[in-house]
Design brief:
This is Poly(3-hydroxyalkanoate) synthetase. InterPro entries: AB_hydrolase_fold, DUF3141, PHA/PHB_synthase. The protein is of the alpha/beta class and about 500 residues long. The chain has one domain: 3-Layer(aba) Sandwich (Rossmann fold), CATH 3.40.50.1820. Strands 1-2-6-3-7-8-13-14 form an eight-stranded mixed β-sheet, sandwiched between helices. Strands 4-5 form a two-stranded antiparallel sheet. It starts with 7 loop residues before the first helix and ends in a 36-residue tail after the last helix.
Length: about 500
């Protein structure tokens, strides 16, 4: 594990800038040739060319709020979230309900129901999870700016109670560690847990975003994060996160724009561009207290994996998790390397046969809405989850499908667990914001670098082996990568051109 002051970070940034420059030049050259060749074939006049430039400019700038692709109904609303019902009309009321927690990095939650044929929630319903719901995060306001992690736990408790007392949780990115924390605190309320692109162990792997953070805020200094929140009256603007995502891979932003010009007369390409940009460019704020808590405790201190995280006055003990686990990672995810996701398998107490890993060929966003992920991986996950959710055990899978992209330590030999600690009560002051002071109830952008799940270490060993704390990225959904990277004649919202979301 590298030292926080290692020159590796500057080297990683330099390499990424070189790669971005080459990528931008390649995209420009290809798109320019395509555009002019198309213009010649059309017999375009100077007036036609001027019209193209006007249409190109309007299409890039004309944005609207993203929409949910399929019919649903809101059955519960809090100041911080809505609960949307996507259940099948003939769903068995005795089936355990499934709840999806979308990413929470300054974008709309509709990414999980992106288009008619790219919908994680609909794939879940059609794969057997007929009672299926999702949370829809609401942007922070002056009334909810002081909301903290305890408020989100309260929402999940109410959701579980409303849906029968026990649920399946599916968490994407930040939604993944939120679901993991809840499962560790309330294992009796969770039937199965699935996480995708969730940074459970933020210090695993080598995401590019850590290199940038090391260079901009060395030593884990929180000043820049606090100053941004203070300058915005206690909230973290979604635009701040978006600009950070774009800076990570500027060639992706440029590539999507220039490819739009090259494909301006392809109606399907233009529509795909509009759909993605409406989602990607539209932002919403995060509660400042919650954001700063995430940065400090989950990213800089890596407290969740060390067994030091305090939520609702209790230590969050990952060993308390015994339910079936579905772990999903992207082979080209530069936001959350696979090691950060696989780590949960080594710290939970779930039997080896009930841990299933899935590895998508795409990047970060592609995990949640890419065609390959939905077709080849989420169908498998949801089908097995459904089998574990029926009133009878007849269709329960005996072993979960385990298909990581690279070899990992055998579950039978790598499941070295530290004995579970009893959750100790601690002083409320240890939590960033007491629940009673917050409203009623209302993130980090490479390749898979290792090939085995690391053996679990005790908090003392982990502390000794870990580098000095590093500040996290300003968010965690990442640039418009795999799901957004535009290839010639390819959807801008499918898989990435250059190993990104």
């Amino acid at each position: 594990m590298r030292d926080s002051h290692s020159p590796t970070s500057s080297s990683g940034i330099f390499d990424s800038l070189v790669s971005a420059t080459v990528g931008a030049w390649t995209a420009y050259s290809t798109a320019t040739i395509d555009y002019w060749w198309g213009a010649v074939r059309r017999g375009a006049t100077p007036l036609d060319l001027a019209s193209d430039l006007m249409s190109w400019s309007i299409t890039m700038s004309d944005r609207k709020r993203p929409e949910w692709a399929h019919e649903n109904r809101v059955i519960k609303e809090w100041p911080l979230a809505r609960l949307r019902d996507y259940s099948a009309p003939d769903a068995d009321p005795d089936m355990i309900a499934t709840v999806i927690l979308p990413p929470q990095a300054g974008h709309d939650s509709s990414i999980i129901d992106f288009t008619a044929d790219q919908s994680q929630v609909v794939v879940g319903r059609e794969s057997g999870c007929h009672r299926i719901y999702c949370l829809d995060w609401i942007g922070a306001t002056q009334e909810t700016k002081d909301a903290g992690i305890d408020d989100y736990m309260a929402i999940l408790r109410e959701t579980a109670e409303l849906l029968g007392g026990k649920v399946n949780l599916v968490g994407d990115c930040q939604g993944g560690w939120t679901a993991t924390i809840f499962t560790a605190l309330y294992p009796e309320r969770v039937n199965t847990l699935a996480i995708a692109g969730a940074p459970i162990d933020f210090h695993a792997g080598e995401p590019l975003i850590r290199d940038w953070v090391d260079a901009i805020a060395p030593g884990g200094d929180m000043t820049i994060y606090r100053s941004v929140v203070e300058a915005n009256n206690g909230v973290l603007p979604g635009r701040f996160l978006l600009d950070g995502f774009k800076a990570l891979q500027p060639d992706q932003e440029f590539s999507r724009s220039i490819q739009l010009l090259a494909n301006l007369h392809d109606a399907e390409h233009v529509e795909r561009y509009r759909q993605f940009e409406d989602w990607f460019q539209w932002t919403q704020a995060l509660p400042g207290v919650f954001y700063l808590w995430v940065v400090e405790h989950l990213f800089i201190r890596n407290s969740l994996i060390k067994g030091e995280l305090v939520v609702e006055g209790r230590i969050v003990d990952l060993a308390a998790i015994e339910c079936p686990l579905f772990l999903m990672a992207g082979q080209t995810d530069h936001i959350t390397p696979a090691d950060q996701v696989w780590a949960l398998a080594d710290y939970a107490s779930t039997p080896a046969s009930m841990i299933g890993r899935q590895s998508s060929t795409g990047g970060h966003l592609g995990l949640f809405m890419g065609h390959e992920s939905l077709r080849n991986h989420w169908q498998v996950i949801f089908k097995e989850m459904a089998g574990l959710s029926t009133p009878t055990p007849d269709d329960d899978p005996e072993v979960l499908t385990d298909e990581p992209s690279q070899p990992v330590a055998s579950k039978a030999t790598s499941a070295r667990k530290t004995p579970r600690r009893k959750s100790a009560d601690v002083k409320p002051a240890a939590v960033s914001k007491p629940a009673e002071e917050a409203p009623d109830a209302e993130a980090a952008a490479t390749r898979i670098s290792t090939t085995r799940v690391p053996a679990k270490r005790t908090p003392t060993e982990e502390s000794a082996a870990s580098p000095k704390p590093k500040p996290p990225a300003v968010g965690s959904v990442g640039a418009a990568e795999s799901a957004t990277g535009i290839r010639r004649q390819t959807s801008p919202v499918e898989e990435p051109r250059s190993h990104e979301d």
